[in-house]
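Supplementary Text 2. Reproducibility record for the structural model of the 144-residue chain.

All settings were left at their defaults, and a single model was retained for analysis rather than an ensemble. We include the record here because the model underlies the residue-level annotations in Supplementary Table 4.
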Amino acid sequence: MDGDFSFSSGKKSKYFYDFDRLHPQDVRRYAKQLVANFGLKDQHFSFVATIAIGGINLAFSVALELNLPLIVIDKRDTIRGDLTVLSDNWLFVDDVVSNFTALERTTSILKCSAASMAICFMFRGENEHPDIPVHYLEKGEVEK
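Retained model, structure tokens:
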């Protein structure tokens, strides 16, 4: 969508990508593409994690593709999912990644080491994460 949008990161853009409008079959197709393109089945992650609300559809589909448990951090920072699966080898999933705030918040709430990898529909950051590989299907304009 075109307009003047302000994001939770405090940044602004003329464009907003509403991936929640995707049909579930499209989300599933994109999840399969991410899993195949980036060799996710070979990574042996223990679980998939996301933060409410944008990445839930994609994270659910990726978790299904990888046959892994899903952990969701809700808007009150409550962990939803099976905590017995927490380990140091996990996958962070979100719809759009720009400044890694959601990734860092998820890591802090889970109280485990940083994710081994992050994936998303679109990357809108200026720089890649210094320690965690981030894979995406599209590179969007950087939020200002």
